[in-house]
Amino acid sequence: MIELFGADYSVYVRAARLALAEKGLTYKLVPIDVFAPEGPPESFLELNPFARIPALKHGDFSLYETVAILRYVDEAFDGPPLQPASAAGRARMTQILSILDSHAYRPLVWDIFVERVVKPRDGTPADEVKIASSMGPARTVLGALETLVEAGPYLLGDRLTLADCHALPMLSLFAKAEEGATLLKRAPKLSAWLDTIRGRPSFKASEPATRV
């Protein structure tokens, strides 16, 4: 039994769900809301003392940190490989994963998508200063990723990898903000990739039930 702990609205949980779906694995999503007023349950802190999602349990083995979970899902189970065969390819994949975590998540998801889409939808005014100050970092992220996209339908060429699983949740939300849609038009390779990968069954299978 594979158990994935987290909330379906989380881009990091969705990255893990995409990898699980691409491997053809059955799993149980155990809801954990880290934004609940009382915080996550004490039992979850035994899985991840940092109270971040997702965490994974596979039998007696437990794991947290999304990139570690992605690699475990790929390496521990049968199914299509989700990492490049060459050292250079794996290094490029790791570079993209690091860019997403270190430079993309905050400006693309929190500072632009949440401010422009989520807050107004929930009746709270967007922080226009925060949005404006995040546009420069967002342009840098998209420019960096655009230069790394290889020929083929996926980020690293002809085969889907963990880089696609990690990038898709962030960029699909970013594209819902008018600023994100505008910037993506200036990144034609990323835009074509996003259009392609949205059609995969794993994208539909991991669609959050919670509105995002």
Describe the structure in your own words.
- This protein is of the alpha+beta class and 212 residues long.
- It has two domains: 75 residues, Glutaredoxin (3-Layer(aba) Sandwich); 119 residues, Glutathione S-transferase Yfyf (Class Pi), Chain A, domain 2.
- 57% of the residues lie in helices and 8% in strands.
- Strands 2-1-3-4 form a four-stranded mixed beta sheet, covered by helices on one side.
- α1 links the parallel β1 and β2.
Instruction: State the low-pLDDT regions, or none.
Output: none
Assign the CATH class of the largest domain.
Mainly Alpha
Question: What is the average per-residue confidence, as pLDDT, rounded to a whole number?
Answer: 96
Question: Can you summarize the main beta sheet?
Answer: 4 strands, mixed
Distance between the ends: 28 Å
Q: Which CATH-level-2 architecture of the largest domain?
A: Up-down Bundle
Strands of the largest sheet, in order across it?
2-1-3-4
Structurally, how many domains make up the residues?
Answer: 2
Shape: globular
Give me the number of helical elements: 9
State Rg.
Answer: 17 Å
- Which percent range describes the beta-strand content? 5-15%
Q: Tell me the quaternary state.
A: single chain
Helix fraction, binned, reads: 55-70%
Write the H/E string, N to C: EHEHEEHHHHHHH
In the CATH scheme, what's the topology name of the largest domain?
Glutathione S-transferase Yfyf (Class Pi), Chain A, domain 2
For the secondary structure, the number of strands is: 4
Q: Structural class from helices and strands?
A: alpha+beta
